[in-house]
Amino acid sequence: MNEVIIPQQTRLSPAPTVAWTPLGENAILVMSACDAIPGKVPVAVDGNPRNKAQTMALTWRRPQADASQAVGFLCLAPAPSHDRAGGGAILLGRPGRPLRLILAPKPLPLQAFLAALADEAGQSFPTVVDGLLEVLLAGKSNPRRLRAVGMLLQSVAKPGGFVEVMGPQDDSIFVQGWTANFAAGRTQLLIAHGGLSSAMLEAGTFERDDLGEGARGFFGLIEECEIRHPSEIERLFFRGNDGWRALEVYERHVLLEPVTVPGHLRDGLQRGSAPPATAEKLKRASQRFDGRDTVCLLEQPVRAGIDDATVVEGTGVLIIGWLFDRENKVVAATLRTGNQSCTLDKSWTRTARPDVAAAFLEDPRFGPALAGRRNSHGFIVFAPKLAPEAGQPLYIEFEIEGQGPAFLPLSPGRAPARRALERVFGLLDPRSSTASSVVEKQIAPALQAAEIAPPRAIESHDVGSFNADAALGLVIGLDHRQRELSSLFALLAIDPEVRRLPIVVAAPGESFDRLGAEARRLARFYGLSIRLVLVEGVEDSCDALEAGLHACRFQTAALLSGAAQIRMPGWLGRLERAYRGRGGHCVASPTLLFEDNSIRWAGAWLEGEGPERRVYNRFVGYPLEAIGSLGPMEVAAGATECCVLSRAAFIEAGGFSRNYFTTGEKGLDLCLKLRMNGAPSLWVPEVEIYVVEDNEAARAPAGVLASLADRTSFDRRWALAISNMRG
After folding, report:
1. HEC assignment per residue over 91-114
2. Which residue in 347, 469, 689, 699 is deepest, having the highest Cβ count within 10 Å?
3. What is the pLDDT of residues 589-647, one digit of tens each?
4. How far, in Å, CA of 257 to CA of 266, rounded?
5. Distances in Å between the alpha carbon of 533 and those of 337, 356, 562?
6. CB under 8 Å to 546, separation ≥6 — which residues?
7. Integer CA distances (angstroms), 219 to 165, 233, 278, 617, in order
8. 694 closest CA partner among 663, 670, 669
């Protein structure tokens, strides 16, 4: 057929005025009648042949009308200009002569337009609407067009059955019910849910004795849909062999929990059928987690168990367990909850578990293959940033070769990061390579990833005329260990440079009842100005020092750990003078001694070159005489057990990092941050302070492994920066 061309200028007879309704911003729906019109015609808007498009005309016969009006038609057209007076006009380029139509001054509401169309088309209305639906669904969708589709479907769709069971599964929705109008396989749907959206149904069918002839039960998954929960579904529309049908949602429908959906799919597959592609898709969905331990049901020699699963607050999930897999049938292990997942077998650390091997030794299915094999059946793994939401199950999915997935549900507890991770230390032999691997690959990364809330001062009490805005003040931080305050307060009181200063004593809330009364009594007895600060969230003295600094507004602060013991009067004055000598832009620290007068800390120094460069405490264990009579000197990092620094600089640097187990790396980390911010560390050798360690705890397996974790974490955080530092 030759293309019909709309002439640039055409003489036209008076044109009829026609009803129309808008469909979105760029299209209108027009209804009229004429003597004849083809199924596809060009249409120009507002008499402008350059603003034209192709349109489909849907027609019906009008038996009682004149020959010139014997054919009714409906078509889509581009919307007229908004600034045009009146409704505008359109020009249809049919063969012979064009057909000009004047749009009514005001559009009809969509519902009124469809009612008029039903009256006009009569018995042809369902056929016309069916064709119109095809046109509307084929074009670019918009809310008004979808609303039109929804209203049309309600007008013409015949009852097609009911949806009786629904349930969510990931990005799909399980449905089950009955119908007589579609076969098993893949079916396109339109879902009414306040609006209207398209989706695909992958479904199987099964026989039901309670249905009439031709009707069958169906089950399947709705995919590629906008909605995320079955409760949003109002009605499902699909096109059957005899036109559009509607599946109503049964008023008393069953709403499944996600974890029960796989069982319903398995039941449907057992009693029903579906084309191979659909059956395979439904089978995969039926193999999802349904709340059961299916590892214990495997015929293959694979078993697993969990000793401990802990949701580490703000961090992830820590799992300690075992996997017995003598023939290496487990292809992958993945931790899942909701839409979150973490591959475990790529990052876990395997550990020796002779108890697991012993447990299976007498089982004839497992025992014969155990002789001579390694017993590294255990595993420890940290899954970062994975957080189960309320009501979401947590489970491990094991992919079994030749079998598919098997599942192991977890019942996790919850714990703060340090407490949860420190529990692992008790399970490890610090002398083993396994312990080192667990610390480096699991514990250190977990602690570094942890989001630990800072310590918080929740209550304070002043004794004497405490001046929170003093230019210089002393902050003492106590941890949970028993401390004798009487000797400390006596040494503070006999030092004239300290006695006049305001002093903050920060302690854990759990210790406050015991320490508070004693501190008040001693402060009143010695005439000291004290602020007692009750702190929540204290893990060590660094946490108490930080909370104490925030509880005052000193311009310059002297920090003193509860583990430190004053050796001589005048210590603070000499530290402050060295600090002032550098313009107040440094961290001034004394020499720290063990109780036998050997050196615990005498400056932290940079040693080595490039990637091998490290921060090193050079004089540890040497007698005090080894340093001679040196004067103040700049070092790589100071000692925060006792130091003088700017409170503003401390706060600007972010305070102590909480992502370490021990105070040593916490202090080193802080001093390097201050150095990067322009406040280097100054060692003042002439000032000497005792620092009494909890040596028993430091030598215990947990202490050794905590130190290893901190060194690993510190190196990961600072190795690159240290390799480029001067000095």
Report:
1. EECCCCCCEEEEECCCCCCHHHHH
2. 689
3. 999 999 999 999 999 999 988 888 899 898 999 999 988 888 999 999 999 999 999 99
4. 15
5. 42, 50, 14
6. 454, 455, 477, 655, 656
7. 9, 16, 11, 71
8. 663
Measured between alpha carbons, how far is 677 from 403 in angstroms, rounded to an integer? 58
Count of residues making up the chain: 727
Cα-based angle 358, 370, 319 (whole degrees, multiple of 5): 60
Alpha-carbon torsion angle 417, 418, 423, 429, nearest 10: 120
Determine the angle formed by the axes of helices 276-286 and 261-271, rounding to 10 degrees.
Answer: 140
Residues with Cβ within 8 Å of 291's Cβ and at least 6 positions away in sequence, in order, are: 259, 260, 393, 409
Q: Quick check: pTM over 0.90?
A: no
Task: Kindly give, in sequence order, each residue whose CB lies less than 8 Å from that of residue 639, ignoring residues fewer than 6 positions away.
Answer: 589, 590, 592, 601, 604, 667
Q: Which residue has the higher pLDDT, 404 or 547?
A: 547
Give 593-642 as a DSSP string. E-TTSBEEES-EEEESSGGG-EEEETTTT-BGGGGTT---EEESB--TTE
Residues 6+ apart with CB under 8 A from 195: 143, 146, 147, 150
Q: Which helix (H) or strand (E) holds 167?
A: strand 158-169
Structure tokens at 403: 């079998």
Pair 687, 700: CB distance under 8 Å: no
**With 60 as the cut, is the pLDDT of residue 423 above it?**
yes
Within 326-416, strands assigned E span 330-337, 340-343, 349-351, 378-384, 394-400, 404-410, 413-415
Q: How many other β-carbons are positioned within 10 Å of the β-carbon of residue 427?
A: 15
At 579, give phi and psi (nearest 5°). -65, -45
Identify which has the larger pLDDT, 726 or 410.
410
Rounded to a whole number, what is the largest CA-CA distance in the chain? 124
Q: Can you spell out the DSSP letters for 297-316? A: G-SSSEEEEEEEEEEETTTE
CA 221 to chain centre: 26
Distances in whole angstroms, Cα of residue 612 to Cα of each of 70, 606, 715: 94, 10, 11
Using alpha carbons, list the distances in angstroms from residue 631 to 530, 574, 586: 33, 12, 16
- Taking the mean position of all CA atoms in its chain, how far away is CA 668? 32
140: DSSP letter? -
497 φ/ψ angles, rounded to the nearest 5 degrees: -75, -20
Tens digits of residue pLDDT in 174-208: 999 999 888 899 999 999 887 788 899 999 999 99
Q: Which two tokens stand for residue 564?
A: 């430190």
Tell me if 428 sits within 8 A of 705, measured CB to CB. Answer: yes
Rounded to whole angstroms, how far apart are CA atoms 58 and 38? 9
